[in-house]
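Why does this matter for the project? Reviewers at the last site visit asked to see concrete outputs rather than summary tables. In response, this paragraph embeds two records directly. Each consists of the residue sequence and, immediately after it, the corresponding structure tokens. Nothing has been edited or filtered.
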Amino acid sequence: MASNINLKLKQKQYESTVVEFINEKKGYFLVVSDDQNFISLLRNTVAKHLAIATDALSVVTNTDYIIKSIRDVSMRKKNVLVFMERMLEGRDTGILVRQVKNAYSDVKIIILTGETERQRLVLLHEIGADNFISKPISVNTLIEKIAFTIKPQGKLGQLIDTARAMVQQGSHESALKVCRKILELKPNSAAGLLVMGDAYQALGKMDRARECFEEASRNADLYLEPLKKLADLNKLIGDSEAQLGYLERLDRLSPLNVERKVDMGEIHVEMGNQEKAEELFELAVTQATREAMAYIGDISERIATIYSERDPERAERFLRKALDAKGDMLDRGDLGTFNRLGIALRKQGKWRDATIEYQKALRIAPDDENLYYNMSMAFAEGKEFRDARSNMLKAMAINPDLPRRDKTIAFNMGLVFMRAGGRDYAERCLQVALELDPDFDLARQALERLGQSS
């Protein structure tokens, strides 16, 4: 019973923090997302759950306008909290996070994501993301995430914020006093030790600063900030070898940071380690190329989508560009592109070319029933019914419930089996089509023809 009361009190505290941010501190939510479910959840949370006017929230779906939108809101003396999709319009928003933080360091950013690799999240945090939301999310958890992003919750967090502000204002001795209180409340607090190290460094006490940063690092194995502070401190005092050691530790924790590899390579050049420098520079260029090519591929696919219904030939050209841009980086995430390319080819009557593309995709995902289904349809369009039947059977072997996914899929499967001599399969698929839609006249007519041929 007591724990339930405590939870409710904490939730009320989180709600008060968010309301105070909007009403008293001129807070503003800028949502960079095309996820209508999340946008609706946030709007309802703001308007109904927290009773805040919805004019404190706006949505941007085009990443080209995000910097302008932040500038416009900031000019109205608003404190901006940005909710940003990790992927938007097929584009990784990591570069955008860096741009926002470089232009507006005070803006808070919450990244919206589904499942993603840990290394990518580590990089996003390193370049400026303040928090992460894994979708879907409940109203209460959403409010809690917002509260922790805009203001530390509890006495400890507030003391850390106070100490940081003192360091920024040049009140270094006062900051050290507050840091000692922090460490009394929570011995070995990594955040408290970091601020203490900043204060000592500003006072020129480099050894004491180093001790604080190293202690912070020992107490937070995956916390990048202490290692970054140590690398910067050793650069400041001219100890390149120690700086390199900390950069290498950072690289192991966050290996996707291209700029850090260049920094490491530069130190190796200065130390005369040309071979190691060259290796790091090559890795940096390879990673940067991967990111650039992935972006080119995403743009090409967007253009192909525009052409998909109007001009299959041009759609084909841009879909090929999308796949070519990925080079040897193709994975299961590209299966949709292969399927769309196959459809674009089939619309042009190039069914044989479509089967070739599906075969390439099967090398990436040999257990994907959709590829076998589409391959079967392509062979059927070329009147190669034996191959059509063989591939449709492979699709059903992988997923026996494939016909139940959609009435049109079930109907198409039924037609393929009718023409390829698979009467039992044809009957089963057509019956499924009618189960899914009892008014599906084409499926009923096909079943009647099947009965007349018996």
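We now turn to the second protein, recorded in exactly the same manner.
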Amino acid sequence: MSSISPTSLLDDVELQPGRPPILRAETPGDAPSWAAEHRDALRAVVAEHGCVLVRGLGLRDVAGTGAVFERLSTGLMTEREAFALRRIYADGVYSSAQWPPNQPMCMHHELSYTLEFPGLMLFACLTAPTEGGATGVADAATVLEELPTELTERFEREGWLLTRSYNDEIGASVTEAFGTDDRGAVESYCRANAIEFDWQPDGALRTRQRRSAVVRHPVTGRRCWFNQIAFLNEWTLAPEVREYLVEVYGADGLPFNTRFGGGDPIGEDVVQLLNEVYEANTAREPWQAGDLMLVDNIRTAHSREPFEGSRDVLVAMADSVRLSDCSPTVEVTVR
């Protein structure tokens, strides 16, 4: 049990408009021990504010960072259904998603299209970029409140649909996404996780999964806009990237895309609106080497902004939560 009072740590959090909550750590250099001692208090800060950036831990290597991740979580997760490649440093410790540095990774909730997803995201910056590259955050309940009611009610009724076309050129391959290249094992996973699948004549896999766009936080019960509708939609891609992918793979063969739960396309205007509301509610702070960030993955969306220079941010997905425990508005059928 931590000897640090959660209340005292909450009093030390710096709160400024447009920036995430920041806590300045006073540690002699043993970050894992500091994390173990302050675990309960840090988690109380996240429960209060949805996220916190801890500055001053001096994280500088994979081993020490992984130890901090383990001490702060109730269990690290193995990623499944990845849409972008990551380097695996250790069990449950990954690089950030490999995404073009000049392209933003728009606001999203990690693995919000799965039936079991992380309740807590952990980020650690070993090398900060020379410019940009912040991990922005946005409060999901606030975003939901600021979106047009007619739009959110439709998504509550229908949910959202994620379509994927796996290939060996763009994004994660079947093996990388499912952890196996055995077709039978992939099909079993899909059936167990409410994913429709269709093998193409050339052996490529296409999948469809319908999920709730709005959930209730399993602890607070607060309604949250929880999805990756905008991030994984074709209209969020840079125009030249979208045009290239459509030309090569066809409109129905994009590596990923999103639709309304009933199957209707989501217009460019809707995606633009979603991203504008996210941007209006984004808090950001440039990374400094050694920083740690904890994010409540259900209450708080996160992004990765374009950057220049070398950027080395380690990631862990932790404290698994089942969609069924979040009052989903759309039923899923597990076969």
